[in-house]
Batch of 4 targets.
Target 1
Amino acid sequence: MEPMVDFTYLDKNIRFLRKQMNLSQEELALKIGLNRGNIASYENGTAEPKVCNLLRLSRLFGVSICDLAQRDLSGDEVPCSNGNGHAKKAQLVEPQNPEVLNIIHSNAQRKLQMMEGLVTCSRLKLEQVHTQIPPELQLIIVNFEELYRTARSLMDEHLSLLKSLNCKDSSANE
């Protein structure tokens, strides 16, 4: 099975970005809650960070996890020290393919319609039940409604993000 993320540039990028921020391995380790040996292992390629540490590194460096792992950042505009120990955010966002964004948006709209259809169907069926609903079923109904609210909130955020990427969004809040 192929790994989901190709860590081709991870070791080089961690070293490069750390040096751009004028941090020692020890200082970087302290900033993300590790020890110097962890950073040394990441930089020499003998270990790969756990997801939580990868996320901390990407946030500190101001780059996406994908860019940190898969792009050679040494030639890009990257964070650099501004004299007070803070780093400027990298400008590494590539222009997105509008066709891909439109496909993602279309898929999200279809999933939203499917989700709304399921909820409507289940609510109609509940209205038709004229008998006492057993406690076990009541718990399932409550959990289903909570799951729906959470999924709807996530879908709204997803569509909002797509809209911010200049993707058409005609009915995210309908």
Target 2
Amino acid sequence: MNRLLACAAAALLLGACASTEKELTDKGMKPLDAAKAQTLLSGNTATGTTASGNGFMIYNAPDGTMRGKSGNSSDAGKWEVTTDGQHCNQWTTWRGGERRCARLYEVDGEIRYFEGGNYGGRYKIEQGNPYKL
């Protein structure tokens, strides 16, 4: 029960800390450029929480494939960074297999991502594939 309460509190705190993309740009922050995003993601694992509070871990392989886990579910797909720095991915089944792109901002040692200007979630980068995804 204590663990459940702690998880619920953490989810609320994470949601309360969510910034809008406009708030970040009003503070003078800029999204990551293509080179920085590519270097950050390629060959590394993103571990974080979506805007709805779902935890995830995603390994972005250097060859453009990715594997992810969220709860008891796992999926695979493809990822890329566009020339304007957006991180795009397309899962086999998650998100209905729809290709989606997000702008990435580095804030307080983590990455916040925005899809179409809407807060999508946050994650930290872990070197390599420590979870063997």
Target 3
Amino acid sequence: MTASPPDLVEVFKALANPVRLQVLSWLRDPERHFPEIGPDGAGVCVSHIQAKTGLAQSTVSAYMAALERAGLVRSTRIGKWTHYRRDEERIAAFVAVLGHSL
């Protein structure tokens, strides 16, 4: 499945926050930055992201929702926990669109 072109404005809004940008960077190499990865490649549990940022759970959830709306991460629900991982295909599409747009 090919990723749809990203909405550049939505992506830039998501990346404008330094904490969201840092989380996206951490998710690039999750094994290095987080103690546990979710089962079957589900990603990093939001509670681990929250602990690493030191921010309130509600703030981290809002940040992750912004990254997901922009198409930069995907979420998987496992029980009561949400796990996040980068959407590399959409990130590559963003980079390509950006290269052609500017």
Target 4
Amino acid sequence: MTATAIPSGQLALKGPAEKLDAAHWPVRGDLAHIRLAGRCFVPHYAVPMERRVAAGGADLLADGKEGADVREVLGGGTLFNVLDITGGWAWGQVGEDGFVGYLPVALLEERRG
């Protein structure tokens, strides 16, 4: 399990916002990975929940709906860091620095241990 460091001290945004690549940065208009606190201004930050893709694998989608563009085909056992679950879809990031996208929650295994 990887430890997620929660930033300490006072957080402040300084200067213009960075232009982030949505396919690789875990940030949306309402939520971002906790490691982006101080770099991105959103209403909420989340500590990821580590999950693994089920044995059959899964398509990582650009949007949480059937028929959305596929960003990457993930093999069974791939680490997926879940940041949000809504309507049967999990939004998060592959590993620590992979693609960001959506998977059906049913295709993720519960964390063991």
